[in-house]
Amino acid sequence: MYKKIALATVTTLAFAGSAFAQTSFLDDFSGEASLTGGKTTGNTDTEDLALGLKLAKDGDKWRHKFDALVDYGKVDGSSNKQRFATGYQIDRDISERTYVYANADYYNDKFGAFKNGYFVGTGLGYKVILPDPIGWNVEAGAGYRSQATRSTLAQVFDTDGVTPVLGMDGLPTFTGDPSIRNNEFALRGASDFDWAINDKVSLYDDAEIIWSDSDTYIWNEIGLSAQLMGNLAARISYRIDHHTDVPMGTEKTDTATRFGVVYTIK
C-alpha cells in the first residue's frame, strides 16, 4: 500500500516537469510574508513571535503552493516554544472545478507532544466555490505518515525527593512514555476557504485532518486581514491544533491567538 501511494505521488510530481518546460520555475510567484505575535496555550503557555511565508504560482492548469512557519516563544527568559513547519503542494486541473494534487509537509517541534514528523501524499481536489470574491476548495487523499512522539520519561524519587527509587535490577526507575516513531498509512482531508469581503478586508478559514491508526491530527485556522497601506495589512488569527492520542503528560490541544502584519508579494 505504501509503495502504491509513494509511486502515485512521485508520478504526479514527475508530470510537473512539463509545467516548467517553457518558463523559469521561480518566475511569477505571489503570496505573503507575515510577522505576528500572540498567546499560545496547551503544551506551552507563552507569548511568542512567528515568521510566516506563503507563496503560490498559478498556470493554465498547474498550481504550486509553498509555505513555511517559524514559531518561537519565551517565558521568564527561557525558551519554551520552538517550532518549524514547511509544506509544498502541486495541483493539476482536470476540469474547471476538479484537480489532482501531490503534497509533502514536514515539522519539527522542540516542546510539542510530537517532536517531528512528515506526510507525503496525493489525492483529489474540488473547487466548491470558484474565486472572486469567495473561493472554497476541498481535498481528500491518502499518503504515508511518519511522526515521533516526545519522550515523557521522568526518574522516580523517594518521598524525600532526593533518593532515587531502584527497580529489581538495581537500576533507577522511570515513569512516563518513551519516544516512539510511527510510520504508517494515513488518510487526509482539507478545506481552504477565502473571502474578499471588500477591497480592504479579507477572511480565510483553513482546516486539515490526517487520520492514521496511531493518531488523528486536526487543525483549523481562521484569520481576518485589513489593508493598512499599499501592500501592508494588519491581521488577527486564531488556530487550534488537536491530536487524539498523545504521550502521557502532554496536552492533546494547542491554541494560538496572533496579531501582526502581513506584506503582500506580487
Give an overview of the whole structure.
The protein has one domain (2-17, 29-153, 183-265): monomeric porin ompg (Porin). Helix content is 5%, strand content 64%. The strands form two sheets. A twelve-stranded antiparallel barrel has the order 1-2-3-4-5-6-7-10-11-12-13-14. It has a two-stranded antiparallel ribbon with strand order 8-9. Mean pLDDT is 85; it is low at 2-6 and 8-23. The relative contact order is 0.16. It is built from one helix and 14 strands. The protein starts with a helix and ends with a strand. The protein has 266 residues and is mainly beta. A hairpin with a 2-residue loop joins strand 12 and strand 13.
Radius of gyration over all CA atoms, rounded? 21 Å
Please state how the strands of the largest beta sheet are arranged side by side: 1-2-3-4-5-6-7-10-11-12-13-14
How would you spell out the order of helices and strands? HEEEEEEEEEEEEEE
- Label the overall shape: globular
CATH superfamily: monomeric porin ompg
The CATH class turns out to be Mainly Beta
Domain unit count: 1
Instruction: Note the beta-strand portion.
Output: over 45%
CATH architecture: Beta Barrel
Q: How many H/I helices?
A: 1
Binned, the helix content reads: under 10%
Mean pLDDT: 85
Classify the secondary structure makeup into a structural class. Answer: mainly beta
End-to-end separation in angstroms reads 41 Å
Poorly predicted runs are 2-6, 8-23
- Which topology does CATH recognise? Porin
- List how many beta strands DSSP finds: 14
